[in-house]
Write a structure and sequence with these properties.
The complex is a heterodimer of chains A (about 200) and B (about 230). By secondary structure, chain A is mainly alpha-helical. Helices cover about 75% and strands about 0% of the residues of chain A. Chain A folds into two domains: about 110 residues, no CATH class; about 90 residues, no CATH class. Chain A contains nine helices and no strands. In chain A, α2 runs antiparallel to α6 and α5 packs antiparallel against α6. Chain B has about 230 residues and is α/β, with parallel strands linked by helices. Chain B is built from nine helices and ten strands. In chain B, the strands form two sheets. Chain B has a six-stranded mixed beta sheet with strand order 6-7-8-3-9-10, with helices on both faces. A four-stranded antiparallel beta sheet of chain B has the order 2-1-4-5. In chain B, α4 runs parallel beside α6 and α6 packs parallel to α7. Classes of the chains: A mainly alpha (about 200), B alpha/beta (about 230). Chains A and B meet through α7, α8 and α9 of A and α2, β6, α4 and α5 of B.
């Protein structure tokens, strides 16, 4: 079972839940840009505190959120080590706190916005591009499937790791990566068939 | 709704030459409940997937109510729904409500109306309490019910169910089977469950990529039992 929060909508009645999906997506993008363009370790810590505050406000479960962030741990350790080595602690805090803040805001977005609303927002937003051949429904569907695929791929990775371990191959990268890649492609085909079976993506 | 197969064959190219997945077959499927039985790898699923255009024939034509699955694939899929063996393959949205709403997007443009209709469908399926539940948190039976609801939400005229009870326990098998047999739609049921096959109006035995028997369910089941030596 997926332990990830990405794509896991949690219904609620907070102001964040009530902001329409389109403007909310715009705010998420602005927040991401701000974490990169506003310099300084204190401002980055401020962004992080703000993101954590929002996560608490919308009642995201603490344990599940920490679990969702766990796959980022290796990236954070590597980025921190590299930044400390190259530019010192202040820059490391700036970069890592900004990165964490952006991820948490993305989790807040998916936790407070139903996929249905996201689909509507993207379809509406891309409407004007229909005249140049863009199919907004198809783009929106692809966007939502990406959100759905992230926890799926982590599930496949966990299952593949367990299967490799059961055969005593837990230290073999090939025993993990090859079946994982094949199963991910197979899942993509299955999803395509499932959508076609509902007449979605045919239009 | 008549489904017509006219000299339909499916094959794939392999290193050793062409491999037949279905030998040339001609028949009409018009009965309300039709069972497809056969051993694993016999060609049942290939046959079933031909009927709504998920697989295109290598030769011959499949028509549904006059629509060619190769030429009018999208229109055919709007008429013929398909339920897969593994509901995990079929559920593509994070929660039950959103998954049903996805099926309704083409027909109901207003979001609130769509969500209300999705809730109605979940209520009919006995899943109202699970509307906002992650699909990962549903039991096997609930997932299969939800997958079925997701297809029925598109209001097809024909429903193809490819071994929909294979992964379920006895209670859930009974639950899904009762739902399927209560549908107004024409049902084409791929199954290993011979009791379910016996509840149909017609049964087709597929063996070695060809139709080995086609007739009354009791006769078809007897033929199949003899074929597999049980």
């Amino acid at each position: 079972m997926s332990q990830l929060l990405i794509g896991a909508y949690r219904p609620g009645r907070t102001l964040i839940h009530r902001i329409p999906a389109g403007p909310k997506l715009g705010l998420v993008a602005l927040f991401g840009i701000a974490t990169v363009t506003v310099p300084g370790d204190w401002s980055a810590l401020g962004f992080l505190a703000f993101a954590l505050g929002l996560a608490l406000w919308v009642r995201m479960p603490v344990r599940a959120t920490l679990r969702a962030l766990r796959p980022l741990l290796l990236v954070i350790v590597l980025v921190t080590a590299f930044q400390v080595w190259q530019k010192g602690w202040a820059t490391a805090i700036d970069v890592v706190a900004g990165l964490l803040a952006s991820v948490i805001i993305a989790l807040v977005f998916t936790a407070t916005t139903s996929i249905d609303s996201i689909l509507d927002a993207i379809t509406r937003g891309l409407g004007p591009f229909r005249r140049i051949g863009v199919n907004p429904e198809r783009v929106a569907l692809a966007f939502s499937l990406v959100l759905r695929a992230i926890p799926d791929i982590f599930d496949i990775a966990q299952e593949t790791r367990a299967a490799a371990k059961a055969r005593g191959l837990d230290r073999s990268p090939r025993a993990l990566l090859v079946p994982m890649a094949l199963r991910t492609v197979a899942r993509a085909y299955e999803t395509g068939d499932a959508l076609a079976a509902r007449g979605l993506g045919d239009d | 709704m008549p489904i017509q197969l006219d000299e339909v064959a499916v094959s794939v190219s392999t290193a050793d030459g062409d491999l037949a997945l279905l030998h040339p077959t001609t028949l009409t499927l018009g009965e309300r409940r039709i069972a497809l039985v056969g051993s694993n790898g016999s060609g049942k699923s290939t046959f079933a997937r031909l009927l709504n255009g998920l697989i295109e024939p290598t030769a011959g034509t499949v028509t549904v109510d006059g629509l060619d699955t190769r030429r009018d694939g999208a229109a055919v899929r709007r008429k013929v729904g398909f339920v897969f063996t593994n509901p995990d393959s079929q559920l593509v949205m994070p929660t039950s409500l959103e998954d049903i709403a996805l099926s309704l997007r083409r027909t109901i443009k207003d979001k609130d109306a769509r969500r209300a209709q999705a809730r109605n469908i979940l209520t009919e399926m006995g899943l109202a309490e699970r509307a906002d539940t992650s699909i990962h948190a549903l039991s096997g039976g609930q997932k299969q019910l939800l997958a079925l609801a997701g297809i029925l939400a598109t209001d097809p005229d024909v429903l193809i169910a490819d071994e929909p009870t294979t992964l379920l326990d006895l209670r859930n098998t009974q639950l899904i089977a009762d739902r399927l047999f209560a549908l107004r739609q024409q049902l084409i049921l791929v199954t290993h469950d011979l009791d379910l096959a016996l509840r149909c109006d017609r049964a087709i035995v597929i063996d070695d990529a060809r139709v080995a028997f086609d007739g009354q369910p009791a006769d078809a089941v007897a033929f199949y039992r003899e074929l597999v030596g049980s």
